Amino acid sequence: MLVLPIILPLFSFILSSLLGTSIGAFGANFLTVSILFFSFYYSIILFFKLLFNNLMYKLIFHTWIFSDNLELNWTFCFDSLTLIMLLVVTLISTFVHLYSVEYMLHDPHVPRFMSYLSFFTFFMLVLITANNFLQMFIGWEGVGLCSFLLINFWFTRLQANKAAIKAMLLNRIGDFFLLLSLFFIIYIFNSLDYEIVFSMSSLLIKHKLLFLGYKISFLDLLCFFLFLGATGKSAQIGLHTWLPDAMEGPTPVSALIHAATMVTAGIFLIIRCSFLFELSRNALNLVIVFGSLTAVFAATTGLLQNDVKRVIAYSTCSQLGYMTFACGLSQYDIGLFHLTNHAFFKALLFLGAGSIIHALSDEQDIRKMGGLQAILPFSYAAFLIGSLALIGFPFLAGFYSKDIILEMAFVKQTFFGGFSYCLGIIGVFCTSFYSTRLLLLVFLMNPMGNKNIIIKAHESIFFIRFALICLMALSILSGFILYNFFIGFGNSFWLLSIFILPENYLLNDIEFISSFYKVLPLCTMFLGIFVANLVYFNVNVFYKIKQLKFFKYVYMFLIKKWYFDRIYNQIVSQNILHFSYFYTYKSFDRGLLELFGPFNSVNLFYSISNSIKNFQSGYIYHYLFLFLIFILLTLTFNFFIFSILSKLILIFFILV
C-alpha cells in the first residue's frame, strides 16, 4: 500500500494515453479523476498511520546502481515531511483534475491533457518520496518535462511555444547547478543517500575546497549550488521570468504548477536539506537575501499588471519569496506551513480566475471586466476568500503563516533578519494593494468590457463549483487547524525530517517582542486596502497621481518588470547570439571545419589534380624530369629515415 499513492498517477497517465482514442473524453475524465482520488485516499491512510504511531516508513523497491563503492537503491521514504507534501500534492491534483472536466469540456484533446496532468503528478510524487538525491533528480527533471508539455498544450499558439521554451531553458540553468551539487556530494560522501549524506555533514564543517583559486568551505559551496538549483524551480529573482509567461497554458495547468507542485519543489529541496543548510551560515544569509528581494520584486511588479492570471502569478512568486526567507531564517517548519496554506488559497485564486475567464469567453484583461459581482456571485465569493487569505486577513489561512514568518524575521536580531522584515512589510502592503485592485476592477467597479460578452456570462456547473467550495473551506480553516500541528510548542511530529540548530530555534522569543511589531503587518495590510480603494474609487486622486512627473518612470519600471526581460533579451541573449554568429559559426563552423572538412578537401584534391594534369604534355623530357625529381625525393626520404632510426637504435643500446 505504501507505493500506491505514487504508482496510481502513473497508471492514470498510461491508461489515458493508450486508451484515449477508445474511451474518449468522458472515459479519460472518469478514469483520471477516480484514480487521483484513490491516490489521495491512500495518502490520508499513510498520514494517519504515521501520526498515531510516530513512525517513518521506508520501502526499498529495487537495487538501482552498484558501481565501485557507490550503491543506490530505488527507495521510497515516507517521513512526516514527505507525507505532508504527499497529502497537499494529491489533494490539489485531484481538485485540478476534477475542475478540468468542465473547463476543458470543448477541447478536442482532453485525453492527452488529462494524461499530462497525471504524469506531472507522478513525477512530483517521485520527487518528494525519494530517499536519495539521484531519484529526487529524476522527479525534478520529470516535472520540468511535464511543465513544458502542459504550458505548450495549445501548441498552435506562438506565445505558448515561446513560454514553454523559456520555462525549459531557465529551469535548465537551475538544473545545471543542482547537478553540480550532486557531483560534489558523490565526490565527498561517495553516496547520494539522504541518510548517509546528512549524518556525515557535521564532520565536514571545516572541510575546504580550492574553487576558482579560493579556499571555500565545502558546505557553503554545496548549499550555494543546491540553492541555485532551487532558484530555477521556485522562480527566485534572477531565474523568475519563466513563471509569469507560463500563464499561456490552460488555467488548470497554472493552478497545478503554482499551487502545490513545481514551484514548491525548490522550497521542498531546501527543507529536505536542512541538515546541510543549518551548518552553513553564509548559505542561509544568501537564502534570506534572495527570498526577501523576490518577495518585494514580485509584489511591486504585480501592482500594475493587467492580465488577471499574470497578477496571480506574480503573487505566487512573491509568496515563494516569503517561504524562501523563512527557510533562510532556519524556520523550515514555518516555511512548510506557509507552503501548505498557500497551496489552498492559490489553487482557489487560479481556479476562480479560470471560472471568470471561462464565463467571459476567454477574456483575461481586467481592464475589460468590471461589474461581475452581480453576474458571477459565486466566483466573486471564491475570489474574495482567496484574495483575503492571500493578503493575510485575520483568521484566514495566510494570516497565521505570513505573520509568524515576519515575527521570526524581527526576533532574529541580525542585519539579515531586519532586512527580511522590512522588505516583508513592503511586500505585505503591495500584496494587499494589488489584490484589492484586482477585486475592484474585476467585480466591484462599473463594467468596462464588451456588452455582449458580459451579458452572456454565466456561472459554471457542478465540477468547477465543487472544487472551488472545497478550496474555499480549506483557505478559511487550514491556518487555524494546522497552526499548532505544524509549529506548536513541544511538537514531535517532524521527528528527524527537519533539523534546526538549538541557537536558531526562535519560537519562544516571539512572545516577548513589542506589540507594535506584532500589529504592524496587520496595519500595513489594511493600509494597502485603503490606498487601493482611495486610488481606484476616487478619480481625482488617480488623475493627480498620473500627473506627477516621477509617476511615468515608476510606471514604466514596474510595468516592464524591473527590466529583467529587456536585460536578458537585449544584453545577454543578443550578445551571445552575436558572439555565436561571428566567432563560433563564421570562424569555426564556416572556417575551420570547412577548411579541413570534406568540402574543402574535395576542392583541394581537384586543384592539385588540375596542377598535375599539366605535366601530361606528351614530351619525353618532361617525363624524365618528373622521374628524376621523384627518385631524388625518395632517396632523401630514405636517408633521413635511416639516419633517425640508426640514432634511436644507438641511444637504445647506450641506455641499456
Q: Number of domains in the coordinates?
A: 3
Helicity, in percent? over 70%
Number of DSSP E strands: 4
**Integer average pLDDT:** 84
Placed side by side, the strands forming the largest sheet appear as: 1-2
**Tally of helical runs:** 27
What is the terminal separation in angstroms? 74 Å
Structural classification: mainly alpha
Q: Please tell me what the overall shape is.
A: globular
Tell me what the structure shows.
It is a single chain. This protein is mainly alpha-helical and about 650 residues long. It folds into 3 domains: about 5-550, no CATH class; about 560-615; about 615-655. Helix content is about 75%, strand content about 5%. The chain has 27 helices and 4 strands. The chain has helices spanning about 5-20, 20-55, 80-105, 110-130, 135-150, 160-190, 195-200, 220-235, 240-245, 250-260, 265-270, 275, 280-300, 310-330, 330-360, 370-375, 375-390, 395-410, 415-445, 450-455, 460-485, 515-535, 540-545, 550-560, 565-595, 600-615, 620-655, and strands spanning about 55-65, 70-80, 210, 215. The strands form 2 sheets. The protein has a two-stranded antiparallel ribbon. The chain has a two-stranded antiparallel sheet with strand order 3-4. A hairpin with a 2-residue loop joins β3 and β4. α3 (about 80-105) packs antiparallel against α10 (about 250-260), α11 packs antiparallel against α15 and α13 (about 280-300) packs parallel to α19 (about 415-445). The chain is globular, with a radius of gyration of 31 Å. The model has no long low-confidence stretch (mean pLDDT about 85).
